[in-house]
Design a protein that fits this description.
With 683 residues, the protein is of the alpha+beta class. 52% of the residues lie in helices and 11% in strands. The chain has 26 helices and 21 strands. 50% of the residues are buried. The mean pLDDT is 94.
Length: 683
């Protein structure tokens, strides 16, 4: 018989609906039961593509005896961390404070008031490697709560004080100056792996925001070391097993230092951030390799991660048929069965496939050698090798599609869709792909139709026709950011109006004027142990980082000094932390670079869709220019009233015309794409 999770929309919660555990979703019903029966709460937090979450479910939550103990002694609450980042953030802070570590599955024991008194992550079914069994933990804590209540409450009160202090305390401050940016770049270069790229040792995460800091540093200073570090990393990742060599798109991270063996889950946000970064590397270098990787990644998202309604799904699992990575790996025999002897031999040479294998007796496809070396070995021209690999890749992808696919988390999250919307809108112009622009428009329309209430409140999660859970700061900020990027790609003012509306709501709901800071949950949110405020950029940028970036860009585009002042106040409030830990503030450092620099104001006035207008737009997007705002259109009526940059701007001699201004100084208007590129590259 299904438990209470059967009525949820989260795929992660639905995975547990048939457990013998009497699970509750997070809500007042669970807390009332805990208070009424004087039981502690067992809070279990995870997400659908989390490998060890699946393992703990199979070992413990599906076990009748373990479930009996849980049901007898605890009120059991299951939370999808992707739907409820507020809960995840609060209790992850508690876990890290108690254990100096963190991760998922997260297992936290709470008082009936929601205050944590003990926390851990994965617990095995039997004692192992110095870890107690999950049943031992359950029985020990049940006994402590029943017989040593004062000790439990003292622990809980200590954690409560820590959580409130961590969000209420003032943060150190430093002057907003370019030395912060230079110091951040120097710190990141000091952590760079000079052999395989990336930062630190295994496991290795892509860290696209840190790489963007280096790319901006190169743009600002001309430092060749910064660019070479970015290129080394991007090439090593794209040639490694962390990149899906057949289907495109990046896995979550690599367990080794050379990017070969991935943790096979694929997350929407990784592919949103990385596809944009590869496009920026293409703008900087003109190297078609980066264009190809970006395009293959976005094509993967379009093919596998897009709902019929236009939303983007959240993730694909690492596991299929109960085995991690089974969907992605190959043996030489499997290659021969699909390709025949000759092409199988070519594929094995190119992707490093051997009888011994590189992953549990099978092979993760990767590119261990330069194509020129493989072509020379096979007696082929590089161009011929490329054509044959393209054909082989298509045939292997078709064969792989007949395998049992990993599970897919089909909930649509507003924040992650905003990241992907931003990438598709940008890619449409950089790559001159109108189909990408269609994808972006459909996604924006979906978000505004399905996740925006009549009162202008944004909802976070959508699945099977149901939108639920009020949006958080990151949802408002990232969707506004995506809409702004779509306006800049299309000059369709409706997207700008929507971005401004969300920004106004964001300011009203999440800004604390007394502290001059953004909080992650709105002021009218349900009362939790503390009001969450996570300012660090992690796998995704923080809501604060994106909010500051959006305010700065809209402030310049619309002439809104109030937006600029608010962004500056938020930057000043975090400046000391940025100075101490630059690697934790990649996106915020980008906003600081914008604030301290001399952003370009680029206006293109012309007939929408006309060849001369398109030529200027193509020229504009051919240049890596992270600190800029773009406006365009016919330059009259509603557009000029909303966007001061358009005021008085007209076409010269009836031709589409570009205007470039910087620091209150404007260059000569031009109708020539080559001259526009020259002006943008100056300085």
């Amino acid at each position: 018989m299904a438990n209470r999770l059967a009525n949820e929309t989260s795929p992660y919660l639905l995975q547990h609906k048939d457990n013998p555990v009497d699970w509750y979703p997070w809500g007042e019903e669970a807390f009332q039961k805990a208070r009424r029966e004087d039981k502690p709460i067992l809070l279990s937090v995870g997400y659908s593509s989390c490998h060890w979450c699946h393992v703990m479910e199979r070992e413990s939550f599906e076990d009748e005896e373990t479930a009996r103990i849980m049901n007898e002694h605890f009120v059991n609450v299951k939370v999808d961390r992707e739907e409820r980042p507020d809960i995840d953030s609060i209790y992850m802070s508690a876990l890290q404070a108690m254990t100096r570590g963190g991760g998922w599955p997260m297992t936290v024991f709470l008082t009936p008031e929601g205050v944590p008194f003990y926390a851990g992550t994965y617990f095995p079914p039997e004692p192992r490697g110095g870890m107690p069994s999950f049943r031992q933990v359950l029985l020990t804590l049940a006994d402590a709560y029943r017989n040593r209540r004062e000790e439990v409450l003292r622990s809980a009160e200590s954690v409560r004080r820590f959580l409130r202090a961590s969000t209420d305390a003032g943060m150190p401050r430093s002057a907003l100056r370019k030395e912060l940016l230079d110091g951040a770049a120097a710190a990141l270069l000091g952590e760079l792996d000079r052999r395989f790229g990336g930062f630190g040792e295994a496991p290795k995460f892509p860290q696209p925001m840190s790489l963007e800091v280096l790319l901006r540093h190169h743009r600002r200073t001309g430092d060749p070391e910064a660019l070479s570090g970015v290129e080394l990393t991007l090439r090593a990742m794209a040639r490694g097993g962390i990149y899906d060599q057949l289907g495109g798109g990046f896995h979550r991270y690599a367990v080794d230092w050379r990017w070969l063996v991935p943790h096979f889950e694929k997350m929407l946000y990784d592919n949103a951030l990385l596809s944009r970064l590869y496009l920026e590397a293409y703008q900087v270098t003109g190297d078609g390799f980066y264009r190809r990787i970006a395009e293959e990644t976005l094509d993967y998202v379009t093919r596998e991660m897009r709902s019929p309604e236009g939303g983007f799904y959240s993730a694909e699992d690492a596991d299929s048929e109960g085995e991690e990575g089974k969907f992605y790996v190959w043996t030489p025999r499997e290659l021969r069965e699909v390709l025949g002897e000759e092409d199988a031999s070519l594929a094995a040479s190119y992707w490093g496939v051997t009888e011994r294998g590189n992953f549990e007796g099978r092979n993760i496809l990767h590119v261990p050698r330069e194509p020129e070396e493989v072509a020379r070995q096979l007696g082929l021209q590089v161009e011929e090798l490329g054509r044959r690999i393209h054909s082989v890749r298509r045939r292997l992808l078709e064969a792989r599609a007949r395998r049992v696919r990993p599970g897919r988390d089909e909930k649509v999250l507003a924040a992650w869709n905003g990241l992907m919307l931003r990438s598709f809108a940008f890619a449409a112009r950089v790559l001159r792909r109108e189909d990408y622009l269609d994808v972006a428009r459909e996604n924006a329309a979906f978000l505004l139709e399905k996740l925006l209430t009549g009162e202008g409140r944004l909802l976070r999660s959508y699945r099977d026709g149901r939108a639920r859970i009020g949006g958080y700061l990151e949802d408002y900020a990232m969707v506004a950011d995506g809409l702004l990027a779509l306006y800049e790609a299309t000059f369709e003012v409706r997207w700008l109006h929507a971005a401004v509306s969300l920004t106004e709501a964001m300011n009203e709901l999440f800004w604390d004027g007394e502290r001059e800071a953004f909080f992650d949950a709105p002021a009218d949110h349900e009362e939790l142990v503390t009001r969450p405020r996570d300012v660090y950029d992690n796998a995704t940028p923080s809501g604060t980082s994106v909010a500051v970036d959006v305010l700065l860009r809209l402030g310049l585009l619309l002439g809104r000094e109030d937006y600029r002042r608010r962004a500056e106040a938020a930057l000043e409030g975090l400046s000391g932390l940025v100075e101490r830990a630059p690697a934790a503030f990649g996106r915020l450092l980008g906003a600081l670079d914008f604030h301290l620099g001399r952003p370009r104001e680029v206006v293109i006035v012309g007939r929408p869709g006309a060849p001369d207008t398109r030529a200027l737009v193509d020229a504009l997007y051919s240049v890596y220019l992270p600190n800029r705002v773009i406006a365009g259109g016919a330059g009259d009526g509603e557009e000029a009233a909303l966007i001061p940059l358009l005021e008085g701007r007209t076409m010269l001699d009836g031709r589409a015309t570009a205007y470039v201004c910087e620091g209150y100084v404007c260059k000569s208007p031009t109708t020539e794409p080559a001259e526009l590129v020259r002006q943008l590259r100056e300085g």
